[in-house]
Write a structure and sequence with these properties.
The chain is an alpha/beta fold and about 400 residues long. It is about 45% helix and about 15% strand. The strands form 3 sheets. The protein has an 8-stranded parallel beta sheet.
C-alpha cells in the first residue's frame, strides 16, 4: 500500500512537472514577433523559421466538414517543424466570399478564418495574413474597382485601386473589420493575438500606369499608417515580389527584363513597414531559359535583395514565395528536391548573418485537393523525400535561434 501510494505521489509529481513544462513552453511562445535592426525577435531572442504558403485555408475551413484538411496540414507542418504559414484573409465577392459586397460579410466564412487561426495556435504555427490580392483571383483589386464603378465612382482601370478615395475607403473598412474581429473559438481579437506574426497589405501589388513605384508608394504609406493606427502589436509588410523601380535606377538591371510598378527600395523604406519580402518564379519569369540560368538568376535575386534590405532598408527580409512546378519541362520530384535544397542552402547561409528570417515555400496542401492544384502543390504525407528536405531546413533554421 505504501509502495502504491509512493507510485501515485511520483505520478502526480511527474504530471505536475509535465504541466509546468508545457505551460512554460506556451508562455515562451506567447509573445508577439518583433524586429530589431535586421532580425526578427521573439521574446527578446532571434527568431529564425522555415515556413510555407497555404492560401486556401479560410475557404476550405468555411465548410466545417472540410476542416480536417486544415488540421492535417498544420499537424504535418508542425511535424516538419515548419513554424510560419502565409495564407489569405480575404475573398472579395464571387464564390465562397468572405466580403460579399463592401462592408457585408459572410459569418460562416469568417468562422473558417477563426478556425485557421485557432488551429495554427494549437500547432505552434504563426501566421502571415494577407489582406487583399493584386489579381482577380478571390476578388482582389479588380473586384474593389468594380464595386466602386457600380456605386458611380469615376474609375477607369484596376490601378485606380491605389488612388480612388471610394476604393480606398472600401479597403480600409475591410482592414478594420479583419483586425478588430473577435475570434469565435479563442475569444481573442485578431489584433491582440500573437498567433498572427504579421499582416500583409496585398499579395504581389503591381501598377501598370506608373512603373516608377511612386503611385504604389503613396498607397502603401496611407494604408500602412491606417493599419498601425488600429494595431500596433503586429508586424506589417507590403507583400511585394521584389521588382526594383526608379529610386535606384541601376538596380533595375536585376529585374527579369521588366518592371511592374513597384520599387523594392522606396516601398520598404516606409517607416510603418517592418520587413521586406521577395518572391521568385524564374520558371515563369525566365521560361525560355534552362535550369542553370534560372538558378543563377535566383541567386542574384536573393543576394541583391538581401544586401539592399540589410544595408539600405535596414530591415529583416522574408523570402515569402518560391517553388518548383510539376508543369515545368523536365520536372521530377528529385528535381524539385534539388531546387528546394539549393534555395534552402542560400537562405540558411544568408540567415547566419542575421539578415533574413526564413523562407515560405509555395505551397502545402492536404490530400483530396486536386481542384486547387497549380503545379507547385506539396502534400507532405505523399512526398517523403520533399518532406525530408523541408524538415532538414526547419531544423537548421531553428538551430540558429540558439546560436
Amino acid at each position: 500500500m505504501a509502495c502504491f501510494s509512493r507510485i501515485i505521489s511520483f505520478s502526480v509529481l511527474f504530471l505536475l512537472v509535465a504541466l509546468a513544462c508545457e505551460a512554460r513552453v506556451l508562455l515562451q511562445s506567447s509573445g508577439f514577433v518583433q524586429t530589431r535592426n535586421t532580425q526578427f525577435i521573439l521574446n527578446g531572442s532571434p527568431f529564425f523559421f522555415n515556413g510555407f504558403n497555404s492560401y486556401w485555408m479560410m475557404n476550405v475551413a468555411a465548410d466545417p466538414s472540410q476542416r480536417s484538411k486544415v488540421s492535417d496540414v498544420f499537424s504535418q507542418a508542425a511535424a516538419a517543424r515548419l513554424s510560419v504559414c502565409r495564407t489569405w484573409a480575404f475573398n472579395d465577392g464571387g464564390t465562397q466570399a468572405l466580403q460579399i459586397s463592401p462592408g457585408v460579410y459572410d459569418e460562416r466564412v469568417f468562422q473558417g478564418l477563426d478556425f485557421v487561426i485557432s488551429e495554427a495556435k494549437k500547432n505552434g504555427v504563426r501566421l502571415i495574413l494577407s489582406l487583399s490580392n493584386n489579381y482577380k483571383d478571390f476578388g482582389g483589386r479588380p473586384r474593389y474597382v468594380n464595386w466602386a464603378r457600380n456605386a458611380g465612382a469615376p474609375v477607369n482601370s484596376d490601378d485606380d485601386f491605389y488612388v480612388n478615395e471610394v476604393v480606398k475607403g472600401y479597403y480600409k473598412n475591410h482592414v478594420k473589420r479583419v483586425l478588430t474581429r473577435i475570434n469565435t473559438i479563442t475569444r481573442v481579437a485578431y489584433k491582440d493575438d500573437p498567433t498572427i506574426m504579421a499582416w500583409e497589405l496585398i499579395n504581389e501589388p503591381r501598377c501598370q500606369v506608373d512603373y516608377s513605384g511612386k503611385t504604389l508608394n503613396g498607397w502603401i504609406q496611407d494604408m500602412a499608417s491606417f493599419v498601425k493606427s488600429i494595431d500596433s502589436n503586429h508586424l506589417l509588410t507590403v507583400g511585394m515580389e521584389g521588382f526594383y523601380g526608379d529610386s535606384m535606377p541601376e538596380k533595375k538591371a536585376i529585374n527579369p527584363g521588366y518592371q511592374v510598378g513597384t520599387d523594392f527600395i522606396s516601398n520598404h523604406l516606409i517607416k510603418e513597414i517592418d520587413f521586406s519580402t521577395i518572391h521568385a518564379y524564374p520558371d515563369i519569369w525566365l521560361s525560355g531559359k534552362d535550369d542553370s540560368s534560372q538558378m543563377a538568376f535566383m541567386l542574384r535575386w536573393m543576394t541583391s535583395h538581401l544586401t539592399d534590405s540589410e544595408t539600405i532598408i535596414k530591415k529583416p527580409m522574408v523570402f515569402s514565395e518560391f517553388g518548383k512546378s510539376s508543369k515545368d519541362p523536365g520536372y521530377s520530384p528529385s528535381a524539385r528536391d534539388s531546387f528546394l535544397n539549393a534555395v534552402y542552402t542560400n537562405i540558411y547561409n544568408f540567415a547566419r548573418s542575421g539578415g533574413i528570417g526564413g523562407g515560405l515555400v509555395w505551397q502545402l496542401m492536404a490530400e483530396g485537393m486536386q481542384s486547387c492544384d497549380d503545379g507547385y502543390e506539396i502534400v507532405l504525407s505523399h512526398n517523403p523525400s520533399t518532406s525530408s528536405v523541408i524538415t532538414q531546413q526547419s531544423n537548421k533554421m531553428a538551430a540558429l535561434d540558439r546560436v
